[in-house]
Design goal:
Shape: globular
Helix content: 25-40%
Oligomer: single chain
Strand content: 15-25%
Distance between the termini: 21 Å
Radius of gyration: 21 Å
Bound molecules: pyridoxal-5'-phosphate
Length: about 375
């Protein structure tokens, strides 16, 4: 039996009439960039996220870049970033001219380890970008305390935890801003690239909006050098349809996670995800830590099961950041995770027989 890692067609087939209708409407309207479709999505998204402002942008990487630029971060500044996670934040900090300073992650949540942050703060430090990885939030209570004491901006990378919460607070609503990606495979995915920034700060909303639109603060007034990174109407219309379903999708993802947990927790060589106290988990990805990872992945593939690795290289150990000559002992947890993390298929439309085949195969592998 073939088990896909992710099969977006199943979601599309379920919502086909609504999605087709949304796309055709935009095509008929012939109004493609910004406009009422985008405003509608921005207002629905900010309300579900319990924040005042949402700015639709081109993608999740741009969302980070725009936020950093709007906060005035650049040459001579340093920004703290977890070593393990997707590399967009580190890339964008570098592109502003600032220096990404990596911090190792926690053994349990795989998110930035707040106990290690203080040692990295100096007079150049301007911000911390926690990445809410795989679907749950980093420890925002501690991070907020540190950020407040040292007068740092907290920018939450929510691209993997769109609807996660911590002690009832929505992801992206604690820091000065939250950034989102609607890349097709994300929890809330568009029909192409798309992203957003949320914030409660009116000033930052204005700056981000203008920066993403050629520095245009008011019509025809280009007040500073910006860029073009806008959400388009087709993506907004698709996202608006899907937004109504996300609650039930996340509930189903949690059911799948419970199934995995129930059937895998007894296996000594497998560590199932640990959910931090006070956190709800989106399960954008279901990532286990396991022994003989590469062998297991091959074995599963031989049984038709596709898995993935997020990520084979922690950011400091990628070629892009290799010039700094980071050593394994600089980020010991991130270093070990590179060889142990495995993402199992996780999407709401996974079938019972696929799940059964999967857990049976993992058990078979470790009882060999
Ligand atoms: C996907 C992702 C991004 C980048 O989003 P794009 O829309 O692909 O640019 C940024 N951060 C994290 C943690 C991500 O998973």
């Amino acid at each position: 039996m073939d088990v896909p890692f992710l099969e977006l067609k199943r979601q599309y087939n379920e919502l086909k009439p609504l999605l087709d209708e949304a796309v055709i409407s935009v095509v008929k309207e012939q109004f493609f960039v910004k406009g009422k479709r985008v405003e509608s999505f921005e207002s629905h998204f900010s309300s579900i996220k319990t924040v005042r402002h949402c700015i639709g942008v081109g993608n999740g990487t741009d969302a980070l870049f725009i936020t950093l630029k709007a906060l005035g971060i650049g040459n001579g500044d340093e920004v703290l970033i977890p070593a393990h996670g997707w590399l967009s934040a580190a890339e964008m900090v570098k592109l502003t001219g600032a220096v990404p300073v990596f911090v190792d992650v926690c053994e349990d949540s795989f998110c930035i380890n707040s106990d290690l942050i203080q040692a990295h703060i100096n007079s150049k430090t301007k911000a911390i970008i926690p990445i809410h990885l795989y679907g749950q939030m980093a420890d925002m209570t501690k991070l907020s305390q540190i950020a407040k004491a040292a007068d740092l901006h907290l920018i939450e990378d929510c691209a993997q935890a769109h609807f996660a919460s911590q002690h009832g607070k929505a992801s992206g609503s604690t820091g000065i801003a939250g950034t989102f990606s609607f890349y097709p495979s994300k929890l809330l995915g568009a029909f192409g690239d798309a992203g957003a920034i949320i914030t409660n700060a009116p000033q930052l909303d204005t700056q981000c909006r203008a920066f993403a639109n050629h520095g245009e603060l008011t019509k025809n007034e280009h007040c500073f050098t910006g860029m073009n990174s806008r959400l388009d109407a087709l993506q907004a219309a698709v996202l608006d349809v899907k937004l109504k379903r996300v609650k039930s999708w996340i509930a189903r993802r949690n059911e799948v996670a419970n199934y995995y947990e129930h059937h895998l927790k007894e296996i000594d060589s497998v560590q199932t995800p640990i959910i931090l106290d006070g956190n709800t988990h989106d399960f954008h990805l279901y990532v286990i830590r396991c022994k003989r990872r590469d062998e297991l992945q091959k074995f599963l593939l031989s049984r038709g099961i596709r898995t993935a690795i997020h990520y084979p290289h922690a950011t400091p150990y990628t070629k892009a950041f290799m010039a700094n000559d980071y050593q394994p002992e600089d980020f010991p947890v991130s270093y070990v995770l590179q060889g142990e993390v495995l993402s199992l298929p996780m999407f709401p439309e996974l079938r019972e027989e696929e799940l059964a085949h999967l857990v049976e195969s993992i058990r078979a592998f470790y009882s060999k």
